[in-house]
Amino acid sequence: MSKTKIRVGLAGAAGRMGQTVAQGIHKQPDMELVLAIDREHSGQSLLDLIGSHVPDIPIRPKLGEALDEVPCDVLVDFTHPSAAPQHAVSALRRGVAPIIGTSGMLSDDLKEIRALSEEVGVPAMVVPNFAIGAVLMMRFAEMAARYLPDCEIVEMHHDGKADSPSGTALRTADMVANARRRRPTENYAPLIKVEGARGALHQDVQIHSVRLKGMLAHQIVMFGGEGETLTIRHDSLSRSSFVEGVNAAIRTVLQTKGLTVGLEQVLD
Description:
The protein is α/β, with parallel strands linked by helices. The chain folds into 2 domains: 6-126 and 240-267, Rossmann fold, CATH 3.40.50.720; 132-237, Dihydrodipicolinate Reductase, domain 2 (2-Layer Sandwich), CATH 3.30.360.10. It is 33% helix and 24% strand. The protein has 9 helices and 12 strands. The strands form 2 sheets. A 7-stranded parallel β-sheet has the order 3-2-1-4-5-6-12, sandwiched between helices. Strands 8-9-7-10-11 form a 5-stranded mixed β-sheet, with helices on one face. α1 (16-26) crosses α8 and α6 (132-145) packs parallel to α7.
């Protein structure tokens, strides 16, 4: 792939994240955005929709038909949890490596994608968060959990986010749980006056979700020990914070095998 541009398809191309990613891909000398999928804006030109820094290609409504007509190496998906799993299956069956950035994937979806990826011999990636800083936050939390097992997560997103807790929060909790050397302290608040006051429990990590206008994507990971606390925070202030990670995933996915979950797996 070093001498030939990576041919990229983008599902959800007309959304806010899709438009930002489309411009980011178009700027890369080793990539070519050849396919744009979005039902709401089908028939329009991607260039006419966005205005600049994207190729002049038609926006198509149906992924399967588009993949049959336009050769792709990689499909990047920023659509919806209800559509992304089937998009991954459609891509894999056509020999195209899917990169799913859509949050809210269920464990059964991951199992299906993993099994099909191994069956057809085409790699796939599911990435809860493409921001490099968010990947570092999760790594730092993983390191801290070895010494401070008591952990809580507060994740904050814009009010249009479909799922809660976020995929980043769940991934962080998984990494914390796997890194712990001893069990965390039992829940500190046995008397719950309002249902849900302590958030949701995942992997013995309390997760609290905030959805408000004016926010984009933010997460705080808090650890407590005897006489001390440690707080790790990441803030995405613009969708441009995800572009570098998307490009890194595009460049590396074809060198992986099976299903890779998390950008941290390929950044080393």
